[in-house]
Amino acid sequence: MPTLRWSLPISCAFRRWGFAVAHAPDAIVAERDWVHPTAVESAYRPLVPAVDADGNDRAGLRLPDVAVPLGTATGFNLYKAPYPAGEMCDRDGSFLPFARTRAEKAPGDPRQSVVERYGTKEVFVSLVTAEAGRLVSERLLLSEDADHYVAEARSAADIASPP
Prior knowledge:
The structure is a single chain. The protein is an alpha+beta fold and 163 residues long. The chain is 28% helix and 10% strand. The chain has five helices and five strands, in the order E-H-E-E-H-E-E-H-H-H. The chain has helices at 10-17, 64-67, 114-118, 121-137, 143-154, and strands at residues 5-6, 21-24, 27-29, 71-74, 94-97. The longest helix is centred in the last third of the chain and has 17 residues, at 121-137.
């Protein structure tokens, strides 16, 4: 990790103004004037995690509700106009459920529907059970938490193909 260079000692910057601002990589300075701030050399660019084909994060521990999803779960949102378009929302994520059937899919949605991906509720429950069991065997999930995931899968809305 690169070391940070301060234009003032950190204790001095926070003691005088209570905040510091990054104006360039490895260069954090205390901002002295909020009315006429120093020009920033490059625009802020929010970064988000890489995602899989369903739009779920690829990195990290994939719990059963991400490994056997019923939708896309994001840990972030970006603002749209009239707010600062493209800026990161504060700690707000989204859940975008998959369509139940292919016929119910929105135009342009590349994700498989629930029926296309699982077929029946029994298949869905067995996949959740297997994934929860794998995480328990790897000591990444407590058995009581695995039981909760399986119970939630069993109580999920009907996944069976329409008659």
